[in-house]
């Protein structure tokens, strides 16, 4: 079944009625063609759903971003008129976009790093079998499977300065002088060796939350990779007298790098677009206003649909540029993607 | 080579590892012992970090709010103040002074179950087509799937909000299910495709030879062999639909009778009238179905998601 390229099929002359081999190939080809048609039919429900619920709205969002509309006008206005660059001008010249972008990038780098760090450590410590390993593994996955609304609510209560368990513990056991308002304080001044260092408390807290909630995702894939590794190189290293650190650094780690690269890319895309976690934890207050929360606020508070769309288009374009750069760098290094 | 030198060399060969054994192992062994302890400490820390929030949720949900405010540092409630009133409060309908979570549970269940059924009905043929049938544009479809996950959900939320308002789907559970389908079908297809490809092609060809149609092959041969994958995919879709928050917020926020549990909890946790402990009971109600489902099917689910990742 090799004659699947459409060009080939079109190029074949009409079959001669006498030659037996040709008629056999024709029959085979009709099966392939039949399969192709069936394939398309089977795929069509998915395509219809994606086109109507994802692709069309996307295109419309781009159109709206070039129009000046409010939420009330949008349904009635002519979708193909009144094009203007007003929204982009406003969005790009306002400080809100750039400061939220800086926040988003810091937030993304911090949480992707934590997710991969925690995920790798967790996968390494449960690598060798022990009693209860299945349960431990399942427990590690809980933050990822539990509903985001429930876990953000529990975190908010745990970190509450008045009756949260973390501040109680900090004050009673660790000797903190005052409770720390983890989710409402934008910047804290820490005195270290006579220097005052500004620390973005709330932003760091949401980054840690992100690390906690999504490390299971990295854990799952790194664990699968570890289980798929052959044991021989490590046994050989052991025989040659390599210590645990050397074995990890020179044998295990190089085998993990590809999957970690994929995880980093996936997590970067998702964290960049992340909305729920920050919206539910801080509502975007205290220096945690990431881009998607800003879009939401443009949409619901200011009711400026055009600006909200322009903002999200800018975000998507930035993401595409970053991914494109990544692919280029990888290509240049000669790695297969 | 004389026997003397040979034996000297042999002695050296024998001695070398012996010397190494004398000098190396203690350091290495100490390192290993240290790592062994470190490993258990790390496992314990991770367990505390992952389990404590859920434990805290459960413990707060059975305490009266006064007790929490009086004595916030005690984790374990005393036995005589243990209460299930919080659960009654959160589940009872509004007309009886409760928060109406039983209705929300019903809504969430309707949305999640319909999403699972429809995602499988739409996704199975799609996954089979991608795994087996050489139709035109097969490669482009994967690009389309990737694009679905590249853009922030909020960008498509704006036009969807408008469209659904106009055709009257916005304030309904049906509209929500349609959006969830668009979000879950691509992952579902990806998971099932990986599995369908492991079904030997020869088995399917035998079916074709025996006169089955393609659909017949899919229905009678491939699907029965792929039950684990179908279960895992269904569960994954269920979790996404049950946990989803943004679109529920955008579409249903002004229709309280249609709130899902996630939306209900997030809306009520902003108000001061509802005591924290009652909301904790609500969180337990929201989380428990997912956790139970997850523990019942953990192996299936993790295997289904990472299938193919072993090869790196």
Topology:
The complex is a heterodimer of chains A (337) and B (312).
Chain A: H1 6-11, H2 20-64, H3 86-93, H4 95-125, H5 133-145, H6 148-158, H7 165-172, E1 188-192, E2 195-199, H8 201-228, H9 232-239, H10 244-272, H11 276-281, H12 291-300, H13 305-332
Antiparallel strand pairs in A: 1-2
Helix pairs in contact in A: 3-13, 4-8, 4-10, 5-8, 8-10, 9-10, 12-13
Chain B: H1 3-61, H2 65-70, H3 85-91, H4 101-132, H5 138-150, H6 153-166, H7 173-196, H8 201-209, H9 214-225, H10 227-243, H11 246-252, H12 261-268, H13 276-306
Helix pairs in contact in B: 1-13, 3-13, 4-7, 4-10, 5-7, 6-11, 7-10, 7-11, 8-9, 10-13, 12-13
GO cellular component, one term (chain A): plasma membrane
Keywords (chain A): Cell membrane, Membrane, Transmembrane, Transmembrane helix, Transport
Region (Disordered) (chain A): 1-29
Describe this structure in words.
The complex is a heterodimer of chains A (337) and B (312). Chain A contains 13 helices and 2 strands, in the order H-H-H-H-H-H-H-E-E-H-H-H-H-H-H. Chain A is mainly α and 337 residues long. Chain A has one domain: MetI-like fold (Orthogonal Bundle). Chain A is globular. With 312 residues, chain B is mostly helical. Chain B has 2 domains: 3-61; 86-311, MetI-like (MetI-like fold, Orthogonal Bundle). Chain B is globular, with a radius of gyration of 29 Å. The two termini of chain B are 51 Å apart. The model of chain B is unreliable at 1-23 (pLDDT under 50). The interface between A and B is large, with 99 and 100 residues.
